[in-house]
Design brief:
The structure holds two protein chains of two kinds. Chain A is an all-alpha fold. Chain A is built from four helices and no strands. In chain B, the strands form four sheets. Chain B has a six-stranded parallel sheet, with helices on both faces. In chain B, strands 9-8-7-10-11-12 form a six-stranded parallel sheet, with helices on both faces. Chain B has a four-stranded antiparallel sheet with strand order 13-18-15-16.
C-alpha cells in the first residue's frame, strides 16, 4: 500500500462526496444547501486539482481536466452566492439558489467522472 | 538525458505541489475561522453577525498578501483580532515556504537542464534551412563549425562536455548554433537534435572516442539512411566496423596524412593543388619545401608512425624507426630508445638522414625530438605531428616543413565532402595525374586566384539550382556555351574570376577542365573554382532570367507586363 495513493484517492472521493452533499436537496430551497459545505467542496476540489499536477500520462491529463472543470463550476457557484447576497443585496431568491445548485450539479458530474477514472485505473492494475 | 526530454512546465507543477496545497489549506483555514468568530457588540445592544464568506475571503486575500487595508467592513471584535493574528503568521509561513521552493527550483540543475533542452528542441524545430548535425565539439568540431558558419550553413551540435558547451556559447558565430549537452552515442539525443528532420543535410561524428563515432554512424545508417554520414575513426578495427555496414565517409586523419605524404613524395605539385583546393575558407596556403629522397628517421611507431613508415617505404625510401618497443614488422631498422635523447638519434645515424618524422602522441616530446635532431643535422626535412590545436604557437615558432594536425585534416576532408561532392572525382584525377600536368594547372590557378584558399562549388543545370538557364535550354532550345555564362552581369561583361574544373554528364566519363566553347546540356554537373563574388554572380545569372539574358546578349531586357508588351510592339514594328 502506498500512502500517496491513499491521500490521492481520499481527496478525489472527498471532493465528490462534499459536492454531492451540497447538491442534494430541493433545488430552490436555501435551507437544504449549507454554505459551509460549499466552502469545503471548493477547498477540497482545489487541493485535489493540485494533487493531480505533474502527471504526464493520458489518464493523468484527463484527471486534471475533470478537476479543473469542477473547480470552475464550484467557484462560479460560490461567486453567484456572494454576488446575490452582497452586491445585489436581494438575498437568496429561489431562482438564484437554483442556479447555484445547478452549477454545483455540473461540478458533481465532473467529480463523478474523476471517481470513475480513479476506479477504472485501479481495476486496470494487475496487482 | 534518458528517454524523451522532460517538459519544464510539468517539472514546475510537480515541484510546486506541496507549497500550493499548503497555501490553499492555510487560506481555507483562515477564511473558515474568520466566518466562525463572533463579531463586535452592536450599538443597539445586540451582537454583529460574524463575517460572511465573501467578506472573510476579501479580508484574508489582502491580509495574506501583506496589502493590509485595515479592518473591513467594521472594526473587529477581540476574538476576531486574535484569530487574524494567527492568520497573519500562518500566511507568512506559507508564502515564505512557497517562495523558498520556487527559488530552490530555479537553482536546481535538473530544472535548468530541462529548460535548456526545451530551448534546444524549440530551436531545432524552428530551423527551416539546411543544417548539419555535428557530434562532438572538440578541435575538429570547432574548425568545422567555423567553416560551416563562414559558408552560410547552420550546424546543430551535440557535445558531452559541459565545459566545451560553455566555450561554444562564447564563440561569435553569425548564426545561432543550437547546442545540446548530451552523449552523442545515445540515439535519443541524435533524434532530439534533428537527425530525422527533413532539413538535416548530413551527420558529422567527430568525438575523440571511436566507439561514440561508431554509435553515431550506425544510428545514422538505420534512422536516416539517405543522409551522408561523415565519421572520424582512428583505429583500423573501427574503420573496418564502420565500413561493414556501409558508412559512406570514414575519415581517418592518420591514413589521410599518410596519403598526403605519399602524394607529396610522388608529385609535389599535385599535393599543393590538393591542399589549395581543400583548405579551410579564409586561410592561405603556403608553398612547402618538397620532401627529399633519402634516408628517413621515424620517432614513435604507433598508429600514425605505421602509416608514415608505409608511405615512405612505398616511395622506396629507407626508414629507421626509433621506439622503446620493437616494431611488429621486422623489416624496419629499429633503434631502441627515445627520440628526445641525443644518443638514440645518433644511433639512428641522424647525420646521414634527409628527413625526420616525429610521430608520438605527445606534442612536447615531438617538438623536443625535432629541435634536437635539427641541432645535429640542420638540413633535415621535418614532419611534426601536432596533437592539439592549442599548441599552435609552439609549432609555428619551430617552422616545421610539414605539420600534421589531425583536427585540421578531419575538418578539410569533411568540408570537401559536404560542400562540394564533385570535388572528390576531381581530386582523384589530380592524385593519379602526372606531376607536369598538376604543375601547369597549379601555376595557372594560383596565378589567376592567388594562394588564398579559393571558393570551390558545384552547380547542377536543373530546375532547382539553375532555373533561368534550365528554362532557356529546355523551352527555347537555345544552346549555351560555358564561356558565355562565365561573365559578370555588369556593363562591360568582363569574364568572371572563376574556372570550370570538371564536367559530369550522365552516361559519360567525367571531363577534366572543360573549355569555354563546351556546350552545356541539361542535367550537367559542373565544378568551379574561383572567387566568392564570381560564385555569387554565377548563381544570380543561372537563377534570374533577366540577368541571364543580359549576360548572354549585353542588353537589358524589359521586365513587367507593360514594358514587355511595349518592347514586343517595337520589335514587331521594326520587323
Amino acid at each position: 500500500m502506498n500512502l500517496e495513493k491513499v491521500v490521492f484517492g481520499f481527496f478525489i472521493v472527498l471532493a465528490a462526496t462534499l459536492n454531492f452533499g451540497f447538491f442534494i436537496g430541493e433545488i430552490d430551497n436555501p435551507v437544504h444547501h449549507d454554505i459551509y459545505e460549499l466552502f469545503a467542496a471548493v477547498v477540497v476540489n482545489l487541493i485535489a486539482t493540485v494533487l493531480k499536477f505533474g502527471d504526464r500520462t493520458q489518464i493523468g491529463a484527463i484527471h486534471l481536466a475533470t478537476s479543473l472543470v469542477a473547480d470552475l463550476q464550484l467557484l462560479a457557484a460560490a461567486m453567484t452566492w456572494g454576488y446575490a447576497v452582497h452586491v445585489t443585496q436581494l438575498g437568496l431568491s429561489a431562482s438564484t439558489m437554483s442556479s447555484i445548485v445547478s452549477l454545483s450539479g455540473g461540478a458533481l458530474f465532473a467529480n463523478v467522472v474523476s471517481v470513475v477514472i480513479l476506479i477504472a485505473e485501479t481495476i486496470m492494475q494487475r496487482r | 538525458m534518458n528517454g524523451t526530454p522532460t517538459s519544464a512546465i510539468f517539472l514546475v507543477l510537480r515541484r510546486l505541489r506541496t507549497p500550493l496545497i499548503v497555501l490553499i489549506v492555510i487560506f481555507a483555514v483562515s477564511v473558515l475561522g474568520l466566518t466562525l468568530m463572533p463579531g463586535p457588540p452592536d450599538p443597539n445592544g445586540g451582537q454583529m453577525p460574524p463575517l460572511s464568506f465573501f467578506h472573510a475571503t476579501y479580508f484574508i486575500s489582502y491580509t495574506a498578501t501583506t496589502i493590509g487595508f485595515g479592518e473591513i467592513p467594521y472594526a473587529f471584535s477581540e476574538q476576531q483580532r486574535l484569530w487574524v493574528t494567527a492568520c497573519i503568521y500562518l500566511s507568512v509561513i506559507g508564502w515564505a515556504y512557497t517562495l523558498g521552493t520556487v527559488f530552490a527550483m530555479l537553482q536546481d540543475k535538473n530544472f535548468l537542464n530541462a529548460l535548456a533542452q526545451q530551448r534546444f528542441a524549440r530551436q531545432v524545430r524552428r530551423l527551416r534551412e539546411p543544417f548539419f548535425l555535428v557530434c562532438g565539439y572538440g578541435e575538429a568540431g570547432h574548425l568545422i563549425c567555423q567553416a560551416l558558419d563562414e559558408l552560410g550553413y547552420r550546424a546543430v551540435i551535440v557535445e558531452k562536455d559541459e565545459v566545451k558547451v560553455g566555450d561554444l556559447e562564447l564563440q561569435s558565430y553569425s548564426a545561432d548554433m543550437p547546442v545540446l549537452c548530451a552523449d552523442a552515442a545515445q540515439p535519443d539525443s541524435l533524434i532530439f537534435a534533428g537527425l530525422t528532420s527533413a532539413h538535416c543535410r548530413g551527420v558529422i561524428a567527430l568525438t575523440n572516442d571511436d566507439n561514440a563515432n561508431l554509435a553515431v554512424a550506425i544510428a545514422a545508417r538505420l534512422l536516416a539512411p539517405s543522409l551522408p554520414a561523415l565519421c572520424r575513426a582512428e583505429h583500423a578495427e573501427t574503420v573496418a566496423n564502420m565500413a561493414s555496414f556501409g558508412t559512406r565517409h570514414i575519415i581517418n586523419p592518420f591514413e589521410k596524412f599518410g596519403e598526403y605524404m605519399a602524394l607529396a613524395l610522388h608529385s609535389p605539385a599535385a599535393y599543393h593543388l590538393l591542399l589549395w583546393l581543400t583548405g579551410l575558407p579564409g586561410t592561405a596556403v603556403t608553398r612547402h619545401r618538397e620532401p627529399p629522397a633519402g634516408k628517413w628517421v621515424l620517432c614513435g611507431y604507433g598508429t600514425f608512425g605505421k602509416v608514415m613508415a608505409d608511405a615512405l617505404e612505398s616511395a622506396g625510401l629507407p626508414v629507421t624507426v626509433i621506439d622503446r618497443a620493437a616494431p611488429l614488422a621486422a623489416a624496419h631498422n629499429w633503434v631502441k630508445g627515445d627520440g628526445t635523447g641525443v644518443e638514440a638519434l645518433i644511433a639512428a645515424r641522424i647525420e646521414d638522414a634527409v628527413g625526420i618524422v616525429a610521430a608520438t602522441a605527445n606534442d612536447v616530446n615531438n617538438l623536443s625530438t625535432v629541435v634536437t635532431a635539427r641541432q645535429l643535422n640542420p638540413k633535415l626535412f621535418t614532419v611534426l605531428r601536432q596533437n592539439h590545436v592549442a599548441n599552435r604557437a609552439l609549432f609555428d615558432a619551430f617552422e616545421s616543413d610539414f605539420a600534421m594536425v589531425p583536427a585540421e585534416i578531419v575538418a578539410h576532408e569533411c568540408l570537401a565532402i559536404l560542400t562540394t561532392p564533385l570535388l572528390a572525382p576531381f581530386l582523384d584525377a589530380v592524385r593519379h595525374a602526372d606531376d607536369a600536368w598538376a604543375e601547369t594547372l597549379l601555376d595557372e590557378l594560383t596565378g589567376r586566384f592567388g594562394w588564398d584558399v579559393p571558393a570551390v562549388w558545384s552547380v547542377g543545370i536543373d530546375s532547382a539550382q539553375a532555373p533561368a538557364a534550365y528554362r532557356l535550354m529546355a523551352h527555347e532550345k537555345q544552346p549555351l556555351r560555358l564561356g558565355e555564362l562565365l561573365r559578370a552581369p555588369i556593363t562591360a561583361r568582363p569574364p568572371l574570376k572563376c574556372m570550370a574544373l570538371l564536367l559530369l554528364r550522365e552516361g559519360e566519363a567525367p571531363r577534366l577542365l572543360p573549355t569555354p566553347d563546351e556546350e552545356i546540356q541539361l542535367r550537367d554537373q559542373l565544378l568551379f573554382v574561383g572567387s566568392e563574388e564570381a560564385r555569387k554572380d554565377l548563381a544570380l545569372t543561372l537563377f534570374n532570367g533577366h540577368t541571364l539574358s543580359f549576360v548572354l546578349t549585353g542588353r537589358d531586357s524589359p521586365s513587367g507586363l507593360v514594358w514587355e508588351w511595349l518592347a514586343d510592339r517595337r520589335q514587331t514594328s521594326k520587323a
